[in-house]
């Protein structure tokens, strides 16, 4: 399987350049979707020459600042772009195995009304796909429910229900993942700190028929406020976070403050490890109480 990745980089300055190159090298990425590049049209060639100079590129400038860029290693991957909008849909060819599959790199609008156009267009694609592996990944700019937000109480909205309905109607499923359970942080501290799961990977049944052990890695946000995602053709041994999050949803109360448990300054309240450890401790305690 081609190593596919996406990252909302929130701009491509020199620091982001280094981070992207390092990410591609360390993860062995062969096809990359970059979101919100904030690069002006006149600077496209110079930016790409300094980023991944030997790769092929495609971009979407229907919105300001280059909403979606695609980059791929032409020696390994063949790409046929089929359509775009709030996403770029393309057919990928693995030149080593000659297998083909479909990939849609998504950058959803913040406006829920405009996101309905995204759901509708992706539903049209799903209806036209027959037994072809399909992967949909990127920044959807919406969470599924309140459990995918951390830092303050999030109310269930109609937009969340529409997102759930789209996933169900398109017959897509969430891949299990390892790494950071929340893919976006507002870069604030204390009571203003907010984490959300805005970035994800969805696949259809035909994908799982071929790669039943697929998963993806959600790394901690680095130069951007979003986590980079990389698709894996195998399922990592260890803890798969969706199963863990399902257990979170069964609890009536959740707390993300560790000040009463860990008064030490070793943990920062806006650190993902900070609140993740607390929920993990609660889960272990509940398991112990049940057994004893």
Automatic annotation (TrEMBL):
Signal peptide annotation: none
Domain Endonuclease/exonuclease/phosphatase stretches: 5-226
Name used for this protein in its record: Endonuclease/exonuclease/phosphatase domain-containing protein
Entries under InterPro entries matching the protein: Endo/exonu/phosph_ase_sf, Endo/exonuclease/phosphatase
MF-aspect GO terms: catalytic activity
Organism: Sesamum radiatum
Entries under Gene3D superfamilies matching the protein: Endonuclease/exonuclease/phosphatase
Pfam families assigned to the protein according to its UniProt record, in alphabetical order: Exo_endo_phos
């Amino acid at each position: 399987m081609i190593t596919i990745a996406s990252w909302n980089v929130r701009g491509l300055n020199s620091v982001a350049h280094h981070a992207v190159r390092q990410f591609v090298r360390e993860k062995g990425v062969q096809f990359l979707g970059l979101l919100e590049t904030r690069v002006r049209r006149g600077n496209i060639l110079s930016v790409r020459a300094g980023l991944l100079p030997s790769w092929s590129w495609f971009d979407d400038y229907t919105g300001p600042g280059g909403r979606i860029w695609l980059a791929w290693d032409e020696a390994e991957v063949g790409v046929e772009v089929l359509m775009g909008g709030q996403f770029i849909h393309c057919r990928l060819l693995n030149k080593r195995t000659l297998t083909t599959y479909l990939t849609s790199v998504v950058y959803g609008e913040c406006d829920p009304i405009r996101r309905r156009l995204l759901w509708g267009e992706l539903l049209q694609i799903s209806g036209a796909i027959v037994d072809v592996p399909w992967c949909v990944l990127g920044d959807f700019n919406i969470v599924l429910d309140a459990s995918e937000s951390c830092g303050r109480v999030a109310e269930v909205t109609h937009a969340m229900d529409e997102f759930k309905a789209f996933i169900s109607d398109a017959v897509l499923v969430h891949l299990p993942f390892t790494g950071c359970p929340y893919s976006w942080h507002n870069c604030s501290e204390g009571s203003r700190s907010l984490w959300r799961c805005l970035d994800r990977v969805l696949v259809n049944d035909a994908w799982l028929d071929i790669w039943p052990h697929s998963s993806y890695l959600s790394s901690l946000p680095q130069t951007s406020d979003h986590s980079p995602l990389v698709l894996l053709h195998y399922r990592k041994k260890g803890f798969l976070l969706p199963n863990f999050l399902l257990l979170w949803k069964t609890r009536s109360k959740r707390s993300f403050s560790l000040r009463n448990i860990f008064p030490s300054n070793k943990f920062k309240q806006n650190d993902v490890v900070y609140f993740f450890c607390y929920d993990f401790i609660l889960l272990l305690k509940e398991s112990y109480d049940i057994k004893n």
